[in-house]
């Protein structure tokens, strides 16, 4: 219990990770997965990739089981500092905004170029058909 009250900033998480510990953040909890690397069913590679970073998004994308979520508790060493949580939320929001505006751009581009091409092709086919008559 007392351990869970320890608060880390991203700065500290990064520093500790440099010193051969493997800390990562999932749902604002800080986990030291150094002992878990060899046991992780998803392999050590993915855990190392997220060392010193927030892994929430990818952790959720995998769709970890309830068992996995219970296992996590064993590796929890503290919480992410309040100040860094806000930065994280903003980052996530802007990432969502970025990806939605990107897809909007590409879909609006496709929404006019495809009908124009189809229209031109249709016109040529019709013209060559009528000229043959
Ligand atoms: C302390 C944190 C973690 C624990 C305790 C944990 C535990 C587990 C467990 C028990 C499984 C087996 C499948 C299941 O029961 O859901 C698994 C699979 C997996 N995990 Fe994790 N995991 C952790 C963090 C992560 C992170 C940060 C990633 C990053 C992407 C990750 C990626 C994967 C992948 C790719 C699989 C394989 C899924 C499959 O083969 O279908 N895990 N993990």
From TrEMBL:
One GO cellular component assignment for this chain's record is: endoplasmic reticulum membrane
Compartment annotation? Endoplasmic reticulum membrane; Microsome membrane
Q: Could you list this entry's UniProt keywords, alphabetically sorted.
A: Electron transport, Endoplasmic reticulum, Heme, Iron, Membrane, Metal-binding, Microsome, Transmembrane, Transmembrane helix, Transport
Q: Where is this region: Disordered?
A: 84-108
Give the way it sits in the membrane.
Single-pass membrane protein
Gene3D superfamilies in UniProt: Cytochrome b5-like heme/steroid binding domain (3.10.120.10)
GO MF term list: heme binding; metal ion binding
Q: Where are the transmembrane segments?
A: 112-131
All residue ranges annotated as the Cytochrome b5 heme-binding domain in the record: 5-81
Q: Where is the composition biased (Low complexity)?
A: 98-108
Primary subcellular site in the record, as a coarse category: endoplasmic reticulum
Q: Name one Pfam family in it.
A: Cyt-b5
Comp. bias regions, Basic and acidic residues: 84-96
The similarity annotation says: Belongs to the cytochrome b5 family.
Q: What is the protein's name according to its record?
A: Cytochrome b5
